[in-house]
Amino acid sequence: MSSTRAMATAKSDDIAVERLAQSLKRELGSGVPLHDVKRAENELGRQLPEDLRAWHLSHGSKAVYGGYFYILSLEESMDQWRWFRAMQSKLTTEERQLDAQAVVDPGVDRAFWALPQWLPVCSNVRL
Fold first, then answer.
1. CA–CA gap between residue 18 and residue 32 (Å, rounded)
2. Do 48 and 88 have their domain in common?
3. 64 pairs with which residues across the strands?
4. Nearest to 45 by CA among 71, 78, 76
5. Structural domains of the chain, count
6. Which side of the chain, N or C, has fewer Cβ within a 10 Å radius?
7. Residue 122: beta bridge partners?
């Protein structure tokens, strides 16, 4: 292959990569402001894991379909977390004790109200 042809192919490849990058950027959305991440962390009472924090700062402004599930936006994650917390607060002490003692089959998650530290990050339905 001549050097001119190789350069033309490389330029064509660069253009294709740039188009793909722009398409992915539109699909992924923009990040959320740092003050929104800090506000969420303050409400949660802990810092987000570094990779999740980086995701939201880079792309966390909208949900993204991942093939089998949606990666939730920061706002949607916090809305779900608040809902789960509200459900937990409605349980009686007896219901909480029964849940804590429940035997769950392997591979099945415990009831959501038993996991107040859990932050939902994905869903199999669009919220």
1. 23
2. yes
3. 71
4. 78
5. 2
6. N
7. 71
57, 79 contact by CB (below 8 A): no
Encoded amino acid at 12, one letter: S
- The tokens of 58 are what? 């880079």
Q: Which residues pair with 71 in a beta bridge?
A: 64, 122
Write the single-letter amino acid at 76. E
* Measured distance CA(55)–CA(31) in Å, rounded: 8
From first to last of its 127 residues, the chain has per-residue pLDDT tens of 566 665 556 677 778 777 766 766 677 778 899 999 999 999 999 999 999 999 899 887 887 777 788 888 999 999 989 988 887 777 766 666 665 555 555 554 555 455 667 888 888 877 6
Same domain, 21 and 71: no
Q: Are residues 113 and 70 in the same domain?
A: yes
